[in-house]
Design goal:
32% helix; six-stranded antiparallel sheet; Conserved hypothetical protein from pyrococcus furiosus pfu- 392566-001, domain 2; globular; alpha+beta; nine-stranded mixed sheet; 2 domains; single chain
Length: 411
C-alpha cells in the first residue's frame, strides 16, 4: 500500500512560470541548456544544469557545479522567483500532446516504498548517474524535479481529476520547444486531500514510468538522512502520478553503423531464418503490430515479422520486441551484445520519427535502421509485477514532464 502525503510546494509566481520552467535535466546536453537559458537568469537550468553557470566545457560533475546549484536555488528563493506555499497541498498537472491530455497528481511518495518494492521499477540504474542526482538532492536539500509514476485506474481519483480539470488552471502555457500544453492546479481542499491519500493507500503498487535514477537517488538520500537525523520531510520525495491508461509510449528505435562484414543481400537472406521479410519500397514504413519490425537499408524499407517459435509468448521479457530484435538481429546477425556500451549502435526515440532514421542512414553516418512497435504500459507493469527488468533502451515516454512548476524541500 503506497504511503503518500501532501507537501508545501515551492513554486514560481504565475507571472514568472514561463521564465522559470524548463525541460528535464536529462533530455538535453549542457550546450543545449546554455542556449535555451540564454540571458534568462530565472531559467531553472541554472539550478538543474548548473554547469551552464561556468565556461563552456565545464564538467557537469565538477564540485563547483554542485555548489552553484545550491547557490542558484537559494537565489531563486531570495529573489521571489520561487515561493513556498503556506500549507501542504496536492497538485494536479496536465500535459496535452497532439490533442490528447493526461492528468497527473503531484504527491510526496515515501522512500521506504521504493526500497521495499511497493514503487516498482522496470529498468536498471547506473551507479554514477545515481551518485550525480544524489549529490544534487543533498546539496540543494530538495527534490527539484519530480519522478514520473503510473497507477492503475481508480474511479474516485478519476472523478476528482475531472472536477479540477473543469476549473481554471493556475498555470496554463504552451512550451515553445515542442508546442505541448501544460496546466497546473492546486488541490488544497482538505476533503480532496484526504480522498487522494486514502485512495493511494488502497493501491497494490505504483510504477516508475520515467525517472529511475531520480527515484534511486531520492530514496538513498532519504534513507541516509533518516539514519543520521531521524524521520522527517526527507522520508518523502516528489512524484507526479498518472493513470496508466492515459500514458503514451513512443517507439524507441535503433540505428547501426555496419552489417558486421555482411553484404546487404547476405544480411537480408540471413534474416529470413527468423523473420518473414517483405520489401515495402522507398516510402516510410512503420510497424503495424507487435513482433513486426521496419528495417531501412540501402534506400528501401522492409517489414520483418518474427516467425512462430522465435519467442515464448509466456515469457514477459522474451515476448518483447526489444528482446526479439536484440537477440535475433542485433546479437545474432550483427554481433552487438551490449546495447549500453557498443559504439556501433545508437538510439532514436520520442518524436523524431522514421524520417530521422532515414536521414541518418542516407547521410552515410549509419548503415541501417530498425524501427520497433512501441512497448505498452501493460507490458511494463506486467514486467515490474514479475520482478523482472526491461531490456535497455525499451521505453520512450512523451510528453516529458516540465520542471520548475513545483519543488519539494526536504526540510
Amino acid at each position: 500500500m503506497p504511503k503518500i502525503k501532501p507537501f508545501r510546494g515551492l513554486r514560481p509566481p504565475v507571472e514568472l512560470v514561463e521564465e522559470v520552467e524548463s525541460r528535464p535535466y536529462d533530455v538535453l546536453d549542457s550546450e543545449e541548456a546554455r542556449a535555451e537559458a540564454g540571458s534568462n537568469e530565472k531559467s531553472l537550468y541554472h539550478i538543474i544544469k548548473p554547469e551552464i553557470n561556468f565556461e563552456p566545457g565545464t564538467s557537469e560533475y565538477d564540485p563547483r557545479v554542485y555548489l552553484s546549484a545550491k547557490e542558484q536555488f537559494e537565489k531563486f528563493q531570495k529573489e521571489g522567483w520561487l515561493v513556498q506555499d503556506d500549507k501542504e497541498n496536492y497538485y494536479l498537472y496536465a500535459q496535452t500532446m497532439n490533442g490528447k491530455t493526461q492528468y497527473g497528481i503531484v504527491v510526496c511518495a515515501h522512500v521506504d516504498d521504493y526500497m521495499n518494492g511497493v514503487i516498482k521499477k522496470h529498468e536498471l540504474t547506473r551507479r554514477d548517474k545515481e551518485d550525480d542526482r544524489m549529490k544534487h538532492v543533498e546539496i540543494t536539500n530538495a527534490n527539484i524535479e519530480p519522478v514520473f509514476l503510473a497507477y492503475k485506474h481508480n474511479d474516485k481519483l478519476a472523478a476528482l481529476i475531472n472536477k479540477y480539470a473543469s476549473t481554471k488552471p493556475l498555470y496554463d502555457f504552451i512550451a515553445p520547444i515542442d508546442g505541448f500544453g501544460h496546466q497546473f492546479w492546486i488541490i488544497d481542499d482538505e476533503a480532496d486531500i484526504s480522498l487522494i491519500t486514502d485512495e493511494f493507500a488502497k493501491m497494490d503498487a505504483l510504477y516508475i514510468a520515467d525517472g529511475h535514477h531520480r527515484s534511486a537517488a531520492a530514496a538513498r538520500v532519504g534513507a541516509e538522512k533518516a539514519a543520521r537525523e531521524g524521520h522527517g520531510e526527507h522520508d518523502f520525495y516528489m512524484a507526479v502520478c498518472f493513470p496508466a491508461e492515459q500514458l503514451t509510449i513512443l517507439d524507441y528505435n535503433r540505428v547501426v553503423k555496419d552489417l558486421n562484414g555482411q553484404t546487404p543481400e547476405d544480411f537480408l537472406k540471413a534474416l529470413e531464418e527468423d523473420f518473414e521479410v517483405a520489401d515495402k519500397g522507398t516510402e516510410l514504413y512503420r510497424p503495424a503490430e507487435m513482433h513486426e519490425f521496419s528495417l531501412y537499408l540501402e534506400g528501401r524499407w522492409y517489414s520483418l515479422k518474427a516467425r512462430q517459435g522465435t519467442f515464448n509468448p509466456a515469457d514477459p521479457i522474451g515476448v518483447l520486441d526489444v528482446d526479439i530484435s536484440s537477440r535475433l538481429i542485433l546479437d545474432k546477425q550483427l554481433g552487438i551484445k551490449d546495447l549500453r556500451s557498443d559504439k556501433r549502435i545508437d538510439f532514436v526515440g520520442g518524436l523524431r520519427g522514421l524520417g530521422e532514421l532515414k536521414r541518418r542512414v542516407d547521410s552515410g553516418e549509419m548503415k541501417m535502421a530498425l524501427a520497433l512497435y512501441p512497448v505498452s504500459m501493460q507490458q511494463i507493469m506486467d514486467i515490474a509485477d514479475s520482478g523482472n527488468i526491461m531490456p535497455p533502451k525499451a521505453t520512450w515516454f512523451e510528453p516529458k514532464l516540465r520542471s520548475g512548476l513545483v519543488i519539494h524541500k526536504l526540510s
